[in-house]
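Marked as duplicate of an earlier ticket. Keeping the data here for the record.
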Amino acid sequence: MPIPIPVLQNITLLRNLPAADLARLSERMTERTVARREVVIKKGEPGQVLGFLLEGRLQGVDFTVDGREVGLYFVDPNDYFGELSVIDGQPRPEFVIAVARSRVATLPRDEARALLLSTPGVAELVINRLAQRVRTVSAQRTLLGLPNPAQRVCAQLIQLSVKVAGGNVVITHAPTHQEIAIMINTSRETVTRVFQVLQARGILKREGNQLQVQDSSYLNNVAEGRTEPPKTS
């Protein structure tokens, strides 16, 4: 069954395409539902499709040589994934797994490449995304070099934060403590203890699936070593 055009119009990468182009893409796409923790993309497999997340949440992950899972990035609804292998034809560089029950649409690689090569606006979005991903990976590598786990938690929270209308700083679609733990190479219990301290001090406030960062300067100071990390023992 074709993906409904109104659904495609919600996807960031496709929303500015003419209706005729969306109708063609709709006919070429397929959709499936994946369970929580199901592998959507396997590392090392050929990049035969470009993926779009319609509902749920995904995470890019890899594993260290000793088998520890490392979280790399998240994919939220109306976002896309798997673009690197679509562009260069090389095997997938990481796993993408569902961290919640999700609906995923896929577009064959030949159609996705044709779209990129013929539509400058789409190509620019993908290029900017790849540049952002490189910067994020570089920042994450620096973060992992911090010696104190509580310091790494604060640095990760800063990286996930965005400024919204009114000047408020928030973390939307806040990761679970386990998801943060695998991003910063520590235990879930450590992340939970740091969160308890930060919330008790009024640094963080949870509102549903969103975190309000009420003192981002404190998190910055801890991340950059100007303030002692919170004690969790």
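See parent ticket for discussion. Residues 147 and 225 are 11 Å apart (CA to CA).
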